[in-house]
Amino acid sequence: MGEGRKYRKFDREFKLEAVKLITGGRPVAEVARSLDVHENLLRKWKNQFSEDPAGSFPGKGHLKPEEEELRRLRRENESLKEDREILKKALAIFSKRRE
């Protein structure tokens, strides 16, 4: 008990080389057998690469540049909202003192 599935991890270079073999004309089934990878996984890698060759397979914990920028902007937006709320409260406090 407590033992989960053991997933193999493939680095970017391995995936790119596998995709290169497929696009080079070798059948997916043959490449899958030679690399000991499921055919569907190879097809998935090929689709990811064809959609975005430069940004495909960014790696664990890494995002595509557009997604990283979006994440940064969302964090900045939240921070600005918090600052605005603090300033609103401070304005309310100082307005009460003047009255």
Structure characteristics:
99 residues; mainly alpha; Arc Repressor Mutant, subunit A
Element layout with pairings:
Layout (H helix, E strand, L loop, with lengths): L11 H12 L4 H8 L3 H13 L13 H34 L1
Helix pairs in contact: 1-3
What would you note in describing this structure?
- By secondary structure, the chain is an all-alpha fold.
- The chain has 2 domains: 9-60, Orthogonal Bundle (Arc Repressor Mutant, subunit A), CATH 1.10.10; 63-99.
- Helices cover 68% and strands 0% of the residues.
- The chain contains 4 helices and no strands.
- The radius of gyration is 25 Å and the shape is elongated.
- The relative contact order is 0.08.
Mean pLDDT, rounded to whole units?
A: 85
Proportion of strand residues: under 5%
Oligomer: single chain
Straight-line N-to-C gap: 68 Å
CATH class of the largest domain: Mainly Alpha
The count of β-strands is: 0
Going by CATH, the architecture of the largest domain would be Orthogonal Bundle
Runs in which pLDDT lies below 50 for 5 or more consecutive residues are none
In helices, the fraction of residues equals 55-70%
Element pattern in H and E: HHHH
Specify the number of helices.
4
